[in-house]
């Protein structure tokens, strides 16, 4: 990185090593520098957001990701959009989260965890029928851990009593 500050793979590898050795602050600084030299690189934004979330800085992570997504290089990145939706949901911004989850699901309709995210936000808005449909779709998708599958099943069962 001293020779080439824009060498993305070297920066990513060094961040990974720093995180593996418990040096999150140094990794965060390295990513912030990386975003300054390569502002449109989605991997840096995602890695930095994960560190911020682990440190309890969810609002900062959301603001940074929303700003990063304004870049023409990252505007269509579905992973960033899904992470934004998750953070919007945690912030209680369920209408925005549901809309964003629907957008990313249009790109990857089999992503079960995103269906669960959509269902949670729909349920928070008391849109019971749509939430049931999203939980059902989640269980037919991919990427669900056994815990997330059980959660979707439990919520789907619980929502059967709602109109």
Question: How is the topology of this model organized?
Answer:
Layout: H1 8-20, H2 24-37, H3 42-54, H4 58-69, H5 78-90, H6 94-107, H7 112-124, H8 128-139, H9 146-159
Helix pairs in contact: 1-2, 2-3, 3-4, 4-5, 5-6, 5-7, 6-7, 7-8, 8-9
3D architecture notes:
It is a single chain. This protein is 72% helix and 0% strand. It has nine helices and no strands. Helix 5 packs antiparallel against helix 6, helix 6 runs antiparallel to helix 7 and helix 7 runs antiparallel to helix 8. It is elongated. The mean pLDDT is 92.
Name some characteristics of this structure.
9 helices, elongated
Overall average pLDDT: 92
The whole-angstrom Rg is 18 Å
N-to-C span? 58 Å
What structural class results from the helix and strand content?
A: mainly alpha
Tell me, briefly, the overall form: elongated
List the uncertain runs.
Answer: none
**Helix content percent band:** over 70%
Number of strands: 0
Helix tally equals: 9
Fraction in beta strands: under 5%
SSE string, helices as H and strands as E: HHHHHHHHH
| Major β-sheet profile | none
